[in-house]
Design goal:
By secondary structure, the protein is an all-alpha fold. It has one domain. Helix content is about 85%, strand content about 0%. The relative contact order is 0.16.
């Protein structure tokens, strides 16, 4: 398994998807961020070395940004449908 494509492409996509799905299912921003951080810490000790810790912060930020964007979009959509706009 090549680690560079995994770190640069696959893990960010997974963390963004976890942020979106986590907010949709739980209706809270922080649990997906904590999930990504905990999984990243476990991955640091199991598969990667201590330099992967830098990437954990980036992935947690991506999960937070995705969850926050999902919150903004769903809130705006609910407000628009509440007032009768399409």
């Amino acid at each position: 398994m090549h680690t560079i494509p995994l770190i640069i492409f696959i893990c960010p996509i997974i963390s963004i998807l976890l942020g979106i799905i986590g907010y949709i299912t739980l209706k809270k921003i922080y649990p997906p961020v904590f999930l990504v951080a905990i999984v990243g810490i476990i991955a640091t000790f199991v598969w990667f070395n201590s330099t992967f810790t830098f990437w954990i912060f980036i992935y947690a930020f991506l999960a937070f940004a995705a969850a926050f964007a999902t919150k903004v979009i769903t809130t705006k959509h609910q407000q628009r449908s509440l007032y009768g706009f399409k």
